Amino acid sequence: MTTYKGIRGLTIRTVAGDPSPLAIGDIWYDSAARKIQGAKIGAGAWASGGNLNTARTTTGAGTQTAAISGGGYTTAYVAITETYDGSSWTEVADLNTARGRAKAIGLQTAALHIGGESSIHAIVESWNGSSWTEIADINTARYWPAGAGTQTAGLVFLGTPGYTNKNESWDGSSWTELADLNDGRYSAGGGGTQTSAIASGGASAPVVGNTELWDGSSWTEVSNLNTARYGLEVVAADSTVALAFGGTPPVKDETEEWDGSSWTEVADLSTARVEVMGAGTQPSALAIGGNSGSVTNATEEWTKAVAAVTFTSS
Fold first, then answer.
1. What is the C-alpha separation between 198 and 235, in angstroms, rounded?
2. Percent of the chain having pLDDT more than 70?
């Protein structure tokens, strides 16, 4: 018979209560409760973060504690850029071209700002931690695209005019057209890496909850969102774990988690909004700005804490 010691090389430790700090995969005997317990990722929840300095629809990239947000729309298109340190936003150097409905990918210190609207843009700007520089344009000018990846290995896909299904890959110097998505649409959510990405929702005819996964060479349709919408955000480390939130119609606060095969509704945003952008991944994400009837500066932080659970016999 296999034992815990045989697997891990350790006996189960005894603790009165829960060990501190909890780590995923911990197993212990709670001498107070007289039960064997373990630690796993618990339910997620949204909490208020520091507000943007300028309320707007915008972009987002980076992590929950080190994010960047560039451009957007207030009552006009703006070039404003702000960075987030986990508690507050600070204004930094502006984009070269003011525009909204663009897509940002990458990190706080190494990001791309792709496409957008003031006219219909193919412009791409690269951020080095202190300033923006225009680099090679995307092949298909568009606004409301989705994207994934990093400053040197990225994807941009979907968007408008029309309901484009175009998909382009970035290698650090140029954009290359790759396999199209199955369903053309705009204002979808997207995230992941250049070789493992997810696209979900969007405006087509009608609004859809369609989800597609990218494996580096082709897109495959999988399970739809529970709530069809556009103007949502999706954050993901890769195509197996993602978080979708916000959108319209009407303006939504719904949040859903993707586990690689299906979407599950979880805790709602505190501020319902459309054209919300995000940063981070499913366990630790940001919801940034957007429009909740008027433009908002609200930032919310999504966290899935480690929680103790009791083992039961079956």
1. 9
2. 89
Q: DSSP H helical segments within the chain, as ranges? A: 4-8
Phi/psi for 67 (5° steps) reads: -120, 165
Q: Cα(6)–Cα(42) distance, rounded to whole angstroms? A: 28
Whether pLDDT at 254 is above 60 = yes
pTM for this prediction: 0.88
Letter string b/e over residues 129-145, b meaning 16 or more CB atoms within 10 A of that residue's CB: eeebeebeebebebbbb
* pLDDT, tens only, 163-187: 999 999 999 999 999 999 999 999 9
109-134: average pLDDT:
98
Number of H helices, E strands in the chain: 1, 26
100 close to 71: Cβ distance less than 8 angstroms: yes
The CATH topology of domain 52-297 is: Neuraminidase (2.120.10)
DSSP character at residue 148: E
Q: Say whether pLDDT at 42 is over 70.
A: no
Half-sphere exposure of 128 (CA within 13 A, CB side): 5
* Ranges of CATH 2.120.10.80 domains, the chain: 52-297
Handedness of CA 290, 127, 239, 258 (dihedral sign): negative
pLDDT for position 24? 56
